[in-house]
Design a protein that fits this description.
Keywords: Membrane, Phosphoprotein, Transmembrane, Transmembrane helix, Transport. One of its GO terms (cellular component) is membrane. It holds the Pfam family PTR2. By secondary structure, the chain is mainly alpha-helical. It has one domain (1-122, 140-190, 268-507): Growth Hormone, Chain: A, CATH 1.20.1250.20. Helices cover 72% and strands 2% of the residues. The protein has 20 helices and 4 strands. Strand 2 and strand 3 form a beta hairpin. Helix 1 packs across helix 6 (133-167), helix 3 packs antiparallel against helix 18 and helix 15 packs across helix 17. The longest helix has 35 residues, at 133-167. Mean pLDDT is 75; it is low at 124-131 and 226-264.
Length: 519
């Protein structure tokens, strides 16, 4: 329901900005990318606060209220501008702040909801004895089918709302997502009596506060020139600390939020911070994958507006509807992934999971590169046909919009590999009580990727339009250079994949480290 509401606004927002707010193509694309980036980065800021000060259930309810306010504000802009079109700077500013409310609500809502869902599976996942292959496979299955549900909502949002917005108007097109979100909150609260609520009694039950306190104490000692880290000499003592995690928490931690100055506890918390830092090289190499995923909602949609979209005499396909091909391919292919691909890879690799999470992400990155190569070839063909046409003719070229389908479908298949893999990877690689932060790390990949996409557009536009030349992102779709832009993205993504493979080779997962310690 939440994905339906969000996609109902986001999937066709670039059209709203160009047709109603009267922005240029590049400005609209940068606005959408910046907003998507802000939306995806907010969980990284909000999640530590939610982990430290609120329980997940309360966070979900509070953030959903803010979410609904934002959706209502966006719907109000469509209502106002139907009667009085935007003519001054304050109008786009109001729309921007309305979108920011949606971002703020989603920033706390999504990671908390997914972590709350994962909490229902296992009550004792903190204990080493529960970290077996069966538990790992159960979580893997949960993330795959969670994403299946997410994609089902996205599919309905893209298909239904883009059609309503293009044919019945933007007021109804933005009002329906708001009421869908209200309905989702009502349904969620119906399960109050059956939910499993995890108590936060472990060492890092307030990780954000504790890590800040460790940094403060360490900085103070550095200033005074007397820092010393005490580590246990007896290795068996370390093993006992790991195996007796819960009892030691209750005995050693006082009422001051879980920090009593014990050197062991400081070391433990610093290790948590170090685990997050360990993820940064892999996190950084996934950014180009996120940049590629900004194209369907921006330039792919603008491409489709210039192509032949008729089905029959009267019906025209809304260009944003083609984004549904991504989610539809995920919905159709995910069962095949479980039933066909995994059994084959299990035989080949002799691994119970078939392929590792990191291999899974790498395959998706490779498929996204192929998608961009196809996009570049199709755009080259579109430009060839368009430039042969007279300037007096319609901007629509005699090339079916369905030529864009292969790039959408390939991005959908790459999504099954990389995005689901990212969710599982970041969930498993962070400390247990920082799981919301783990999901925030995953969404922040797409956040920074969106900002990186907007930055690339600005830099490329400034460079290509200098000296009176035509920009690659020209409003005249006959003269743009999107084919060159797509080739550039394919090249940059290839370099990212190469470095990702190198970093993955030397990366040691948390489970491997724990198994090594147990041995």
């Amino acid at each position: 329901m939440e994905r339906f509401a969000f996609k109902g606004v986001a999937s066709n927002l670039v059209t709203y900005l160009t047709d109603v707010v009267q922005m240029s193509n590049s400005s609209a694309a940068k606005t959408v990318n910046s907003w998507c980036g802000f939306t995806s980065m907010l969980p990284l800021l909000v999640a530590p606060l939610a982990d430290s000060f609120w329980d997940r259930y309360s966070t979900i309810l509070t953030s959903s209220f803010v979410y609904v306010l934002g959706l209502g504000a966006v719907a109000s802009t469509a209502t106002i501008w139907t009667w009085s079109p935007p003519s001054n700077k304050s109008s786009p500013a109001f729309l921007f702040w309305s979108l920011c409310l949606i971002s703020l609500g989603q920033g706390a809502y999504n990671p908390s909801l997914q972590a709350f869902g994962a909490d229902q599976l296992d009550h004792d996942e903190e204990l080493p004895s529960s970290k077996d292959d069966k538990s790992s496979n159960k979580k893997s299955l949960f993330f795959q089918w969670w994403y299946f549900g997410v994609c089902s909502g996205s599919l309905l949002g893209v298909i239904l709302m883009s059609y309503i917005q293009d044919t019945l108007g933007w007021i109804l097109g933005f009002a329906i997502p708001m009421f869908a979100m209200i309905t989702s909150v009502a349904i969620f609260t119906c399960g109050n009596r059956i939910y499993a609520y995890k108590p936060d009694k472990s060492i890092d039950s307030k990780p954000f506060q504790n890590i800040l306190q460790v940094i403060k104490v360490t900085a103070s000692k550095l200033v005074n020139g007397r820092i010393r880290i005490n580590l246990p000499d007896d290795k068996s003592d370390v093993g006992e600390l790991e195996l007796q995690e819960k009892p030691l928490c209750d005995q050693k931690f006082g009422s001051n939020g879980g920090f009593d100055g014990n050197p062991r506890n400081k070391t433990y918390l610093l290790e948590n911070a170090k685990i997050v830092l360990r993820l940064l090289p892999i996190w950084a190499m996934l950014l180009m994958f996120a940049v590629i995923f900004q194209q369907p909602a921006t330039f792919f949609t603008k491409q489709g507006m210039t192509m032949k979209r008729n089905i029959g005499r009267n019906f025209k396909i809304p260009p944003a509807t083609l984004q549904s091909a991504i989610t539809l391919s995920i919905i159709l292919m995910m069962p095949l992934y479980d039933k066909v691909l995994i059994p084959i890879t299990q035989i080949v690799t002799r691994n119970q999971k078939g392929i590792t999470v990191m291999q899974r992400m790498g395959v998706g990155m490779f498929l996204s590169i192929i998608a961009m190569i196809i996009a570049a070839v199709v755009e080259t063909k579109r430009l060839e046909i368009s430039r042969k046409m007279s300037s007096l003719e319609s901007e629509t070229v005699e090339l079916s919009i369905f030529w864009l389908l292969p790039q959408y479908v390939l991005l959908g298949i790459s999504d099954i590999f990389t995005v689901v893999g990212m969710q599982e990877f970041f969930y498993n690689e962070v400390p247990v009580r920082m799981r919301t932060m783990g999901f925030a790390l995953y969404t922040s990949v797409f956040g920074l990727g969106s900002f990186l996409s907007a930055l690339m557009i600005s830099v490329i536009e400034a460079f290509t339009s200098s000296g009176g030349r035509q920009s690659w992102f020209s409003d005249d779709m006959r003269e743009d250079g999107l084919d060159k832009y797509y080739w550039l993205l394919a090249l940059a993504s290839t370099l990212s994949l190469l470095f990702y493979a190198i970093f993955s080779k030397f990366y040691t997962t948390t489970s491997e480290l724990e198994n090594g310690n147990c041995k």
